[in-house]
Specification:
Blueprint: H1 6-15, H2 19-40, E1 44-51, E2 63-70, H3 77-87, E3 107-110, E4 113-116, E5 129-132, E6 139-141, E7 144-145, H4 148-156, H5 178-184, H6 195-199, H7 201-205, H8 212-222, H9 229-239, H10 253-257, H11 264-279
Parallel strand pairs: 1-5
Antiparallel strand pairs: 1-2, 3-4, 3-5, 6-7
Helix pairs in contact: 4-8, 8-9, 8-11, 9-11
Length: 283
């Protein structure tokens, strides 16, 4: 007669399992625990999440998946997405990093508006919470879009400080007046999230248009009095083009969705005024 204990039998059975079998069993236990957590939760969040994977047969047609996750006070859309991924479907793909509305990586189309997932409170939204990738951009997978075009437009305005001259003393700093700092302060808050570009109907139909984010970055440097008049004129000449400031139709959509409250439309209008003045020569 065998005297093997139940514990020994379980250990022996586990030893005969392959690593893949063990991972699948562990995943099944986690999903079972997640379902139990949803069942016992006092309140849940209903997410409708856009799904698309061009490399997997059966998933290469766009669709929406439903997720129900336990609600917690202070939960953001990013928190809910992370729970859906970690507890229910590890293939769910989206970008995130700092979770403090600084990196700009989790810009999404949430309930019909461009927002940062980490900044958007679930309690402020109607359910089901509909989460989609940013419009007017190529979808790579699920909620991830290709940002290459956006970065190209930003780079086109040379978003870095360029000065005509530097102090003769290497130890002397290039000072900026308090008034000038206040003038450009809001423009420096851009986190390159792409929400404004996604909301712009002009950018959606004109790939050559620099777009609100790039023009805001151009404003930040062209209005910095440390760069000097010659560099300022060069920047304004670059912006005074068909696909530059004059493509903006003052719709304010970019300003409305900016998560850092930058007055993007105002900055573009000021660039227009400066471009006109730069072309007026009375001598």
């Amino acid at each position: 007669m065998s005297t093997q204990t139940t514990e020994e039998a379980e250990t022996e059975a586990q030893g005969s399992e392959s690593p893949g079998d063990r991972r699948r069993a562990e995943k099944a236990r986690e999903q079972s625990g997640a379902q139990d957590a949803v069942t016992t939760a006092e309140e849940t969040v209903h997410l409708k999440v856009f799904r698309y994977d061009p490399e997997i047969e059966g998933k290469n047609e766009p669709r929406f998946d439903d997720f129900h996750v336990p609600f917690e006070k202070g939960m953001t859309v990013l928190d809910a997405l992370m729970q859906a991924r970690d507890r229910f479907d590890t293939t769910l793909t989206f970008r995130h990093s700092c979770r403090q509305a600084i990196c700009g990586s989790d810009a999404l189309f949430i309930n019909g508006s461009q927002r940062l997932g980490c900044k958007t409170q679930i309690s402020d939204l109607e359910q089901p919470v509909r989460v989609e990738p940013l419009p007017h951009a190529e979808v790579v997978k699920d909620l991830v879009v290709d940002m290459e075009h956006f970065y190209d437009q930003m780079e086109a305005v040379e978003p870095y400080f360029q000065t005509d001259e530097t102090p003769s003393d290497d130890m002397e700093e290039q000072r900026q007046s308090r008034a000038n700092r206040e003038k450009i302060k809001m423009s420096t808050r851009c986190i390159w999230c792409g929400a404004c570009m996604s909301s712009c109907n002009i950018a959606a139909g004109d790939n050559e248009y620099l777009g609100p984010a790039a023009l805001n970055k151009a404003f930040r440097f062209s209005m910095d009095d440390r760069e000097g008049e010659q560099m300022r004129e060069q920047r304004l000449e670059h912006l005074d083009q068909t696909h530059g400031v004059w493509r903006c139709q003052t719709q304010f959509s970019c300003t409305n969705v900016c998560p850092k409250d930058i007055p993007l439309t105002e900055h573009i209008q000021e660039l227009k005024r400066e471009a006109v003045k730069n072309n007026l020569k009375f001598w």
